[in-house]
Design goal:
The chain contains 20 helices and eleven strands. The two termini are 33 Å apart. Helix 6 packs across helix 8. The protein has two domains: 64 residues, no CATH class; 270 residues, Alpha-Beta Complex (Spore Coat Polysaccharide Biosynthesis Protein SpsA, Chain A), CATH 3.90.550. It has 476 residues and is an alpha/beta fold. Bound molecules: 2-acetamido-2-deoxy-beta-D-glucopyranose (NAG) (7 copies). One 2-acetamido-2-deoxy-beta-D-glucopyranose binds next to loops. It comes from Caenorhabditis elegans.
Length: 476
Amino acid sequence: MSQQRQLPYSVILLILGFTFIIYLVSPTTLLNLFYGEFDPYLSADRKVVVYEKMIEALRNMDKYCKDRRFYCKRPETRHVDCRRVLRGDKAYLQSLTGINRIPLIENPFLNLTCSAIKNRIIPKSSQFKLLMLNGTAFARIVFADYEFIEKQVQASYHPQNFFCFAVDANSSAEFQKRMKALERCLPNVFVLPVTESYDSKGHNINLAHYNCMKRLEASRGWGYLMLLQNHDVITKSVYELDRIFDLLAGANDVFMSKEIPGRRNKHSKWDLKSLRLFRNESRNSDYELEISSGFVQASLSRAVVEWLVNEVDVSILLQQFPEYGADEQFISTFQSNQDFKMPGHFTNECFHNDTSVSFISRFSRWVPINLERSSNCASGTVRHDICIFGIEDFLAVSKYPTLSFNKMLPAFDFSIIECTAELLHNRTYLGQRDYNLEDDIYKNLVSVQYHENHKKSDYKLNCTSNFKPWNYLDYL
Ligand SMILES: *[C@@H]1O[C@H](CO)[C@@H](O)[C@H](O)[C@H]1NC(C)=O
Ligand SMILES: *[C@@H]1O[C@H](CO)[C@@H](O)[C@H](O)[C@H]1NC(C)=O
Ligand SMILES: *[C@@H]1O[C@H](CO)[C@@H](O)[C@H](O)[C@H]1NC(C)=O
Ligand SMILES: *[C@@H]1O[C@H](CO)[C@@H](O)[C@H](O)[C@H]1NC(C)=O
Ligand SMILES: *[C@@H]1O[C@H](CO)[C@@H](O)[C@H](O)[C@H]1NC(C)=O
Ligand SMILES: *[C@@H]1O[C@H](CO)[C@@H](O)[C@H](O)[C@H]1NC(C)=O
Ligand SMILES: *[C@@H]1O[C@H](CO)[C@@H](O)[C@H](O)[C@H]1NC(C)=O
């Protein structure tokens, strides 16, 4: 019904838009337009201005989203039928990729009043069920794309959940202003004081997450914490996350591997005494820390966060970690040192044997330069050797066992971000069941089995889980 009502608006706006272009440029351009060559004399910046005007106009006369239980898509992506993509309609997919791929056009007039922010994040007449673990917490380091960030809060919103943000000191003033507006508006959103800058080399990333841990630890509730980066997208609903973390039963989910050579500062001392790692000095022996390399993203039980904040002092360790890649060896180092007895820890025995165990907190597709792009990255777009997910990945997003996808970029493809948010909305608020969470996968993770059994006298570690490692291509 609203579709039909929409159509005239769009047509009027298109005409308005074209008139605007004609008004701006010479009549030759007008001719070119009718020959199908789109405004060749208009600079990219000018085009953006035109689009923004059109979109802003659309937004203002938009009644589509009022008073509805359904997910409200932006004008840019209003035409995208996520369900059709979910049905595996490959022909339809072509109308959303290539030249038709839809980037997010930032809204410079975003309404930042508290009621507007709340309206966007919390659906009207939403009813929440209590979570088994009393909530999930998310610690995310952010530097750009406020509307994308707000969308991630929306997709994982639950009154029992907590969202902590560390904002890059080098991010734009506008971005920082928007993040502060978000914090002011919702009691379960924290934005840390903006004190340092983060970058892809890993500077200050651990510190940011650690500061979020300290902030979150003071809040009651929540059972698990997820450590995230700016463009990670959670792909499980709040209730699915709650279920999965319940199945982990206290085990952490952290990727661990042998230390990547060359990342350690050789001139620093790495024994516990020099690091003054434990607050209880008598635990600080001459034992030299075994470092493990992993990822920034991880899921930690509340007990770990309390342990990291109260039992150890990581200030020397964090200062001493080398410049490059330090962000990827903080949590994994603690997780793999079984002697530290961090709650929910694992062991170094599997990676010593060159066996890596399944990890669910983050999924990314590595596409090093020697690999063929098209067969290793559905969108064909790779940045820093990582595939940028596009709408082509939506089917996999809906079923793949991991909890988050890294990365989706709003400036590249907003459809996949919008469709993922719609999917989670449907699962959270409309009870949509489009896929069955496989409890067995999570219960039988090697780290979960280890956590459950390692104190038993007859326990023998087996680094291979009883399910087949999942293959992404089977999910596409
Ligand atoms: C912002 O949103 C609020 C609540 O939805 C509304 O009352 C207000 O008029 C809006 N402000 C502007 C400038 O659109
Ligand atoms: C959740 O909170 C309730 C009420 O505070 C408490 O009784 C319960 O033990 C909590 N559950 C967990 C898993 O922490
Ligand atoms: C912030 O950005 C400026 C300019 O791009 C750069 O010179 C500076 O080093 C950055 N600061 C940090 C802490 O990265
Ligand atoms: C400190 O550690 C030692 C050795 O592990 C232990 O015996 C002692 O009880 C601990 N002290 C405190 C205050 O926890
Ligand atoms: C590691 O490898 C050794 C030698 O192959 C084997 O004996 C041991 O059981 C393995 N450990 C684990 C935890 O798989
Ligand atoms: C979400 O639910 C609405 C209403 O039932 C439906 O139209 C839409 O296709 C669903 N989207 C997805 C991604 O399942
Ligand atoms: C480890 O577990 C896997 C899967 O359950 C099984 O196939 C394998 O035989 C086990 N290995 C050992 C040494 O028990």
